[in-house]
Design brief:
homodimer, two-stranded antiparallel ribbon, 9 helices, Rossmann fold, about 220 residues, DNA-binding, Arc Repressor Mutant, subunit A, alpha/beta
DNA sequence: TGCTGTGAAGTGCTTCACAGCG
DNA sequence: CGCTGTGAAGCACTTCACAGCA
């Protein structure tokens, strides 16, 4: 816990937006922009200017009055505040289509999310090498999580096997899970689960299009 | 616009939850559950019981007082309300790792989201067959969108090419875009964009874990 | 002077609590 | 009698508006 958070509770929505700010700021940095003020940054992120200032103020005072924010230092500050200024070691469970796809997605590692071990319960898959990693049996998980300092679990099984996968992860001592399977899972209170489900956004599009929102 | 929405504005959050309800209800249906009341359904979705009742009430009266909701009819009603009770035809732009991965993800088609045409601007990829579809040049997009009744665009390019991809889609008359690239895009007002970004959830996990939320 | 940081006001979603129906 | 559907209350996030600093 490096940077002590200024105030108690930080809205979940703020965390989501910080991820967007990083995205946009990194784009600006690449274009050579060195300083930006809250309003243009806000516009690029489709939010309100005060929102940006308030979100950042939860973590400290990063701006210069009358000037704005320095892009590069701001990126670093946000990353530090979020705790993404370091490597996070990840175990992936479920080496099917989706799992393999995500293993090939190079952006994970670039951003510090490093898949270091992969598991499956299918005996035909165990031992196979995928993207440079050997597929291990789920019963080796406890040992490997411990030995390899793994902190995060990623579930990419079919929906009906997600619950069991999460059980394995929890038993291995994992307390942060990212669930890519399209089903809900039950875990003890101290375990945090985040869901990644493309269909939520598909459904939103479909609904709005059906309602004639965009015509 | 089949089912006229009962009240004017429906919270965005409600739409997201409806997607979750479908997920959970389909699981229940598969287990043979025929009727469920709001509280157990709510618990399975990690929300409050009144929330479920209120969300559903936006679209009509689907329940039986003193009994609950019939699972299968409820699924159909929600799907109809969302506009996902039919096929949506999709163009995918960017046949790289991520694009290929999503083409292999069979759940899309199962849920009515059917990728029917794929595009790339790389001359070496054009003509290649991926998952049964020929890669077309982006300049053919306008014609194909029209001919094939495509309504939705999916962007799976690298971040720096997402803006150009969206321009092609908009020029072809697409008004609903799902952006899987990790960059923001600018579109005319009448075009609706939804972002799918895994890193939002990763960052949330990392932040909460760093704050010692789960220990 | 210009833009940040922030109390105060505003808005919209969530939860409560219960009338009303099956 | 139990559970839905819903007005009213509560709460949290967003936006406003401006004091205060560079």
């Amino acid at each position: 816990m490096n940077r002590p958070v200024k105030s108690k509770h930080i809205p979940r929505a703020t965390i989501r937006r910080l991820a967007t700010y990083i995205q946009v700021l990194e784009g600006l940095a690449q274009e050579g922009v060195e300083v930006i003020s809250s309003n243009p940054l806000a516009e690029a992120c489709d939010v309100n200017g005060s929102q940006v200032r308030k979100d950042l103020a939860y973590f400290g005072e990063f701006g210069i009055r009358g000037v704005g924010y320095q892009v590069k230092p701001l990126i670093d500050s946000i990353k530090e505040s979020l705790g993404v200024d370091r490597e996070w070691r990840i175990a992936l469970v479920g080496v099917g289509n989706l799992g393999k796809a995500l293993l090939n997605h190079t952006e994970f590692r670039q951003r510090g999310f490093n898949i270091v071990a992969i598991f499956d319960c299918d005996p035909f898959k165990i031992g196979e090498i995928v993207h440079g990693l050997e597929v291990h049996c789920t019963k080796d998980m406890r040992m490997m999580v411990d030995e390899m300092n793994i902190e995060v679990g990623m579930i990419t099984t079919p929906p009906e096997r997600a619950q069991r996968a999460s059980q394995h992860l929890v038993d291995a001592g994992i307390t942060s899970i990212l669930n890519f399977a399209s089903s809900r899972i039950k875990t003890p209170e101290h375990v945090q689960v985040e869901y990644v489900d493309f269909f939520h956004q598909f459904y939103t599009l479909a609904f709005n299009a059906s309602q004639g929102l965009n015509r």
